[in-house]
């Protein structure tokens, strides 16, 4: 031990100096970046013409978000369908904090704006936006390029994304744009046809077929039409009803849009609001114009669109105007989107690039079914605006990024990585998309379309994908193909991974069954691509389906060959998995063929073509500053060297009877000079699968106990054993503990991912043991893990620290106040994470002052007071104390008499309609039986106290103390 002491003494001063320097710099840097810049707002109602040449006006409700320094470039921020300016308030605030003047507004027919919805008609909604640019040009806070010309960008999601494209095409004053999860051709988005008789010619990865006479996307269209029906004027002045879950949503979720619109959107009817607070009588068209209402009625009742309806939809779609866009464009599209698929973004990219415009494309792991862009992607949009409007930062370029979701995890999420390529393949006619040819097997099969198209297969849950565990992974596993209605073709097991990125293509041969009826309006089929693992479990990537209308088949059974362009997806299909192609006759999300029919389906070409896009995984460099890099490397080497030396010199101290027990603390005492004893004679034991809460008031000795457990300080007496090994500084068994005690010292100039990798490298353990993917999922930071930590909020740092503690999936996890800085939804998520972690056979020790949270999270509890153990056991046992119970009854006095007559029951007293009693071991059911026998009505019966009540009494602050 003398040699060990000399070793510690030799290294302690240099280590302390280095750590103090690094941590001190971290604290100073972090604190300087904590508080976001303040943002002020100004509300305004702007009059615009109701229609071209009209003398009547409607009112557009706006909010102007102002940064600290003005004048500044402006960003126009429209909202998603069914939303209002409130839906984008959080993103508007973020952009204003980045130094932009942001104008958020409610489009006509939404929020508190009046007028009728025309689906972004150029002479209505687009004209409104141009008027808003006129207004911005008059504001002294807005930087201008010339008289009447504001320096302005526009971004928005879904309906707002379409507006950004249409406005940029119509008004050259727009300097740059970033449309998010929007459409190119609304007629193709709502009535797609993925079949074609020829071969595909597009060289881009997700080019759709865009055939005529498509299949009506009934569920999604119905959701959107419902969102425009409400005519309620219930919104109070200055406040709109925000869609649930959309406060941060630049794109919008259609189901939330619809529900919000149906409850309290506060819309005007006709040309304006009714006077005197009265409400206009609703009609079948709600807030839609008569033309839009008639078009929806037609397709909803017939399942098909007339040429006039197709023209109306194309006339309000970017496809008709993209030739006018010359501005730099960032196109962001979701990979989990059964409404506006990757094919819509692909078409926008091709059309805008053909004008010579600068185009960058980003696919992210979300969408209408998978969630709106996270903070990281919103930051990327802001970076795009900063470069093109302010000249700040590096040029974002014209690259291509897509997200790859990995394995499905037990906590309901998936791992995600980003792949970056130099450009979007095929935009310039060069570097066409690579395709992997994969053979499929399967004989010709007969499939039946039932009368009425019912029952129908289930492939997606339109609008609800993002609700399922915060991930579309679950919804992609809910696909159901009905027997007799689906043909199946399968590949052999793959020998290596294939990363599908885009729209696969396959050639099918379809024929009518002779003697069976042939539908007059054509044959409708639904084609989808499954990923089937070695056990046969199937996943439908993105819940994506490709509807095909072939036309009327020859009644004599002559086959027709058709090339099907499947829905665009991103999916790593692993080795030992199979690709399965399913051709079905029905799908509940679409308008199915009502006439009964039977078809023969076969492969016209046995190979399916899978698009692939080569790229590199996006990572953040570990040493962006030479000085920090040198210091980090030195610190890592010092730490590794000291730990290695300690391990060589520490004698093994193992109790073989406790090697399977995660934690045993025996007679633990820690005293300091001055007769201060922080912990005295503390003993308790923690078993596998437990989530144990360590409770106590300030000064109870909790943190001191945890620091001794981590080997940071020496106990004065007693000891701690982890899996039978005695805990000492540098003990190898500490590698089986993951801890977060007294905060984490992250390096602010590095990203969250880089900090985690640096921490793990310092442990000297193999990188394959780190389980970075699982830890990052637990952090729940999305793309923010690639941002510098100095931009993180306190809650984000807290989640990153917990992820760091979980690196390597330690057998014992020790967390000190893990929910500090987390909001209620994050606390709820953390509670579930800890339970799942313990349920996997591991053990969790949580020190917390949130008694209600411990009661809901922990299975066991240890209560400390003044350094001593005052109680230990199951949470419910501690909370119930000596068996006190409370009964809510109809006749309290009668109930009290009955309870007092039961042997052993004591301390009975009445508190209003409640009767409290100490049961003293008498089962609560027996007391309840006696009350019922006596004719006393019992409404509720349960333990009298919560954990908080027991805690206060145990530490001497309860009413009975």
UniProtKB/TrEMBL annotation:
InterPro entries: AAA+_ATPase (IPR003593), AB_hydrolase_fold (IPR029058), ABC_transporter-like_ATP-bd (IPR003439), ABC_transporter-like_CS (IPR017871), Galactose-bd-like_sf (IPR008979), P-loop_NTPase (IPR027417), Xaa-Pro-like_dom (IPR000383), Xaa-Pro_dipept_C (IPR013736). GO terms for molecular function: ATP binding; ATP hydrolysis activity; dipeptidyl-peptidase activity. It holds the Pfam family ABC_tran. Keywords: ATP-binding, Hydrolase, Membrane, Nucleotide-binding, Transmembrane, Transmembrane helix, Transport. The chain crosses the membrane at residues 12-30, 626-646. PROSITE patterns: ABC_TRANSPORTER_1 (PS00211), ABC_TRANSPORTER_2 (PS50893). It comes from the Bacteria. The keyword Transport applies. SUPFAM superfamilies: alpha/beta-Hydrolases, Galactose-binding domain-like, P-loop containing nucleoside triphosphate hydrolases. Residues 251-266 have a biased composition (Low complexity). This is ABC-2 type transport system ATP-binding protein. It comes from Umezawaea tangerina.
